[in-house]
Amino acid sequence: MWQRIKTAIILVLIVGVAMFTTRLPVLFLPLLALGTLIASHEWTKLMPKMKFPARFILLSLVVTMISILIAYVWVVWWLLSFGIWVMALKWVLVYPDQEKWYGRRLFFMGIVILTASITAMYSLWSMSPWWLMYVFLLVWCADSGAYFVGRKFGRRKLAPNVSPNKSVEGLIGGLVTAGVVVVGVSIWLGFSGTAFVAFLLLSVLTVMASVLGDLFESMLKRRAGIKDSGTILPGHGGVLDRIDSLLSATPVFALGVWVLVYANVLPHLTQLN
User: Fold this and answer.
1) What is the tens place of the pLDDT at every residue in 48-95?
2) Which helix (H) or strand (E) is 32 found in, with range?
3) CA atoms within 13 A on the CB side of 269
4) For the chain, N or C: smaller number of CB within 10 Å?
């Protein structure tokens, strides 16, 4: 447990410095590139064995970094990933009865998922580091609430064939915990009426997406027959094990922010600094 805590503290410090030290991307962009490189390497372990896994790793890195520089393609990646997560919901629910998703398509799915999440993180950071921090906080609080409530009151399994320890009661606990965060941030920013409802719904959808991301990675690891995606983070496993929830949550939140700003429901979302 102490090793897990130490690793978490170091990660928070590294990410915090990269996000808040300067508004120039000289620290944050290299961190995203490094994260993409490691995550794509770990993704190759979840797929059927490949002759040349370096191709996937290099392609993921190149596509992601180029996409970051071309802002108008971000929404395309987010929409593509949203479609994948909609399909992933069905795959999680029927696992292991149907496994048509496991195969070559994971190559393309991995590129879309990684590119969408990394461009979403960069987009939110560009708008304001605090919006990216909000998504981190929302997901972490929901995960913690689900863990403690699930341990104490968990009875009904959420997805027993994928992650036996997750329960419906835990999910409810996570949503309630995240709701406290949403209300607190809404009060701080002065959201009310339609703006508050829209922000609440987007945040709830983001939390639900984060749960799906966690379950999806658990399903991939079960199918691949591995416990952790990697060993680079002592006490935590791999990078994918730490950001599995964010892979789905960040593009959903970024896409929602884009829609709400474009629809003039929350135009001042871009003004937080």
Assistant:
1) 887 778 999 999 999 999 999 998 899 999 999 999 999 999 999 999
2) helix 28-46
3) 27
4) N
**CB 56 within 8 Å of CB 44:** yes
Sign (positive/negative) of CA torsion 39, 144, 22, 248?
positive
pTM over 0.90: yes
Helix axis angle for 129-153 and 105-127, nearest 10°, is 120
Strand ranges inside the chain, DSSP E: 157-159, 163-167
Of 129, 116, 119, 124, whose CA–CA distance to 18 is shortest? 129
What's the structural domain count of the chain?
1
Closest CA to 14 of 23, 27, 3, 26: 27
Q: Which domain holds residue 171?
A: 2-271
d(CA 4, CA 236): 6
Contacts of the segment 266-270: beta carbons below 8 A, 24+ positions apart: 266/191, 266/195, 266/198, 266/199, 269/127, 269/131, 270/127, 270/128
Contact predicate 140/119, CB 8 Å = no
* Nearest-angstrom CA–CA distance, 9 and 144: 16
